[in-house]
Amino acid sequence: MTQVYNFSSGPAMLPAEVLRRAQQELTNWQGLGTSVMEISHRSKEFIQVAETAEQDFRDLLKIPSNYKVLFCHGGGRGQFAAVPGNLLNGASHADYVDGGYWAHSAIKEAEKFCTPNTIDIKVSHEGKTALLPMGQWKLNDNAAYVHYCPNETIDGTAIFEQPDFGDKVVVADFSSTILSHEIDVSRYGVIYAGAQKNIGPAGLTLVIVREDLLGKARNDLPSVFNYSVLADNGSMFNTPPTFAWYLSGLVFKWLKEQGGVAAMEKRNQQKADLLYNTIDNSGFYRNNVATANRSQMNVPFQLADAALDKLFLEESLNQGLHALKGHRVVGGMRASIYNAMPLAGVQALTDFMLDFERRHG
Ligand code: PMP
Questions:
Q1: Is 102 considered catalytic here?
Q2: What is the ipTM of this complex?
Q3: Residues 309-352: tens digit of each pLDDT
Q4: Which amino acids does the record list as binding L-glutamate (predicted)?
Q5: Which residue in 102, 137, 245, 254 is the catalytic one?
């Protein structure tokens, strides 16, 4: 069988070693004669899995002890509602930085709870999409918090700066970039991420919340979204997505074996450089994002002639390069190259791109 490299934006590829291990132990996990999916989340065996996964995640991101880590349901969009529900604390306004599709979607959801102060940071730089640096974000005094999305999965834009807004509560949607580069968690009030890109299977959402922000949820917020309820119950107020939690735990172990987040950051830089250099050095492919804001996780690119898109997708699929079709709102192609994508996968993609250009350019 051809080696397959899966460039899906999410649910996305998982490390092959992790999948093999899960396969090996699937039907007889820890000698119990059942799978990990079939045991109680309150059993001592599962509690061990849950605690180890949390500790490894904490180690990987160097999460300070005054932060809770919540393993919950509802995905990124669930958090679009949970964030205002937990953090407004009676305030009527919150700052929302609009840098792309997902930041904008968070604003739409927040409108159900408050009046978002929208801060549009999209600008054009030499004909390419760019984002205003944090120093130029005009935050408002009436805002309960400021929300932004450091990596826009669809637009292929990223903000690499770390926030430094004094005592403002900063909330960030790390769904498509968590664990891909080092961050200083202490600069954030809340970080959240759906698991299905850089962590594990869909169904699990991770929330990192500073303890002083707990206990402020509005009364009518459903309990499963209430950070304090989840924290008080060790993320087991309702039955958590146990299989996704277990598998994410295997991914955390794998990340540690790879050298942790710092090592991934280096590898991700190499992968992104290879792909962007291939695009920039060709007259055939084009990426429309200014260099400083190019995502290292999601790389959209266009062919010189959109009429060739279909052929590009057919040929790439035949070569084992899967899921390169761009999001419908952007068109063209998109390669998502999260932690689990090896350099060899990006090399296979760029080899194919150059060959395709030679034949059709
Ligand atoms: N935020 C970002 C940055 C995303 O990429 C996505 C999903 N692609 C979401 C939020 C929404 O996540 P979910 O589908 O888990 O609700």
A1: yes
A2: 0.99
A3: 999 999 999 999 999 999 998 899 999 999 999 999 999 999 99
A4: 9, 42
A5: 102
Indicate if 173 belongs to the active site: yes
Exposure letters 84-105 (e unless 16+ CB within 10 A, then b): bbbbbeeeebbbbbbbbbbbbb
Q: Is the CB of 300 under 6 A from ligand 1?
A: no
Ligand 1 centre from 173 Cα, in Å? Answer: 8
pLDDT in tens, 17-64: 999 999 999 999 999 999 999 999 999 999 999 999 999 999 999 999
Identify the active-site residue in 29, 155, 173, 325. 173
Contacts of residue 169, defined as CB under 8 A and 6 or more positions apart, other chains included, come to 87, 144, 145, 146, 189, 190, 213
Contacts 24+ apart (CB under 8 A), 279-285: 279/353, 282/353, 282/354, 282/357, 282/361, 283/361, 284/357, 284/361, 285/353, 285/357
Question: How many angstroms is it from 347 CA to the middle of ligand 1?
Answer: 27
> Comparing 17-257 with 260-360, is the CATH topology the same?
no
Is there an atom of ligand 1 within 6 Å of 157 CB? Answer: no
State how far the alpha carbon of 94 is from the alpha carbons of 117, 187, 193, 302, in Å. 6, 18, 20, 36
| Per-residue pLDDT reduced to its tens digit, 273-320 | 999 999 999 999 999 999 999 999 999 999 999 999 999 999 999 999
Residue 122 annotated among the catalytic residues of the structure = no
The CATH-assigned architecture of domain 17-257 is 3-Layer(aba) Sandwich (3.40)
Query: Does residue 271 have a pLDDT over 80?
Result: yes
Domain spans in the chain, listed from the N-terminal domain onward = 17-257, 260-360
| Statement: 260-360 belongs to CATH 3.90.1150.10 | yes
How sure is the predictor about 2, in pLDDT bands with cuts at 50, 70 and 90?
A: confident
- List pLDDT tens digits, range 136-181: 999 999 999 999 999 999 999 999 999 999 999 999 999 999 999 9
Residue whose CA is at the smallest distance from ligand 1 atom 7: 76
With a 6 Å cutoff on the Cβ, whether 345 touches ligand 1 is no
What's the CA-to-centroid distance between 175 and ligand 1, angstroms?
6
How many A from CA of 219 to the centre of ligand 1? 26
Indicate whether residue 116 lines ligand 1 (CB < 6 A): no
361 has pLDDT over 90: no
